[in-house]
Write a structure and sequence with these properties.
With about 110 residues, the chain is an alpha+beta fold. Helix content is about 25%, strand content about 30%. The protein has a domain of about 70 residues. A 5-stranded antiparallel β-sheet has the order 1-5-4-3-2. The longest helix has 19 residues. The protein starts with a helix and ends in a 17-residue tail after the last strand.
């Protein structure tokens, strides 16, 4: 399972990097992800309409890509986004019933499913 998630994560990052590369052929995401990209202001408005707010972020690729986790107050919905240096935000995943884990947890995250 970890290999699948790592491979999928690598595919998402590589595909997203094509969004910010000088030669723009367009993103190539697995069809099952149904990636939607819009300008950042539109993405923020859409996520706020679902009562989601950013609760965490990570920066990669020489500060050119920001990954964010948006979460509703009761953790009933979540969205994972990435934004490029030009302000284009893509929703790379969303779902329901987010479970937060602590760094000291010894339990396998998949065991919560």
């Amino acid at each position: 399972m970890r290999t699948i998630l790592t491979t999928l994560g690598a595919a998402i990052v590589v595909s997203f990097l094509s969004l910010v590369s000088p030669v723009k052929a367009g993103p190539v995401f697995p069809a099952t992800l149904n990636i939607k990209c819009v300008d950042r202001a539109t993405a923020q408005a859409q996520l706020q309409a679902f009562d989601e707010a950013p609760v965490g972020l990570g920066i990669i690729h020489d500060d050119q890509i920001v990954f964010e986790l948006w979460l509703s107050p009761d953790s009933s919905t979540w969205t994972f986004t990435m934004t490029d240096g030009k302000g284009i935000t893509c929703a790379v995943g969303n779902g329901k019933d987010w479970i937060s884990l602590t760094p000291t947890s010894k339990k396998d995250p998949i065991s919560f499913l």
